[in-house]
Amino acid sequence: MADIQTFIVEPHTPELAICARWRANAFSVLKASFEQELRSLELFASNHDLGVALVAKSDGEPIGTCLLVESEIEPNHDVSPWLAGLFVVPEHRRKGAGAVLVRAIEDQTRQRGLSRLYLYTRDAVGFYARLGWSVLDRTNWKGLDTTLMAHDL
Fold first, then answer.
1. Looking at 95-143, which runs of residues are DSSP E strands?
2. Total Cβ atoms within 10 A of residue 74
3. Which is the most buried residue in 6, 97, 132, 152, by most CB within 10 A?
4. Residue 123: strand pairing partners
5. How far, in Å, CA of 94 to CA of 92, rounded?
6. pLDDT tens per residue, range 33-65
7. Contact (Cβ atoms closer than 8 angstroms) between residue 45 and residue 10
8. 52/149 Cα distance (integer angstroms)
9. Of 84, 40, 93, nearest to 63 (Cα)?
């Protein structure tokens, strides 16, 4: 496994545009263009009090991203905070980057004095369960069969 490091994404950096492109292409449920994602991430990255966007890099190359957010978009559950938008480029999947990003978001959550984190997933229940996450509910979220999971930190 390559050495994978995570960094907080800052406004007006090349990594922010890369993350926006990934999110626009990977998360059709957001119904956002690259430009919309870029504007949203610029605003989000300008204030780390409510959440944080992380990028994972291997050998200096961005390979993935993940967010810690206060609220999920139109959630079916009134809980907070959320791990959202985990994405790893296909050629780096199953090499540890996803787990590194999840652990980094968990660390960011602890640093904010919070002890529980939530997420929605459609098809990665096994991945998160291997990292210690538990299924709380199965729901229809934005027209998709989705699982609510939590992790006590």
1. 116-121, 134-141
2. 8
3. 97
4. none
5. 7
6. 999 999 999 999 998 887 999 999 999 999 999
7. yes
8. 20
9. 93
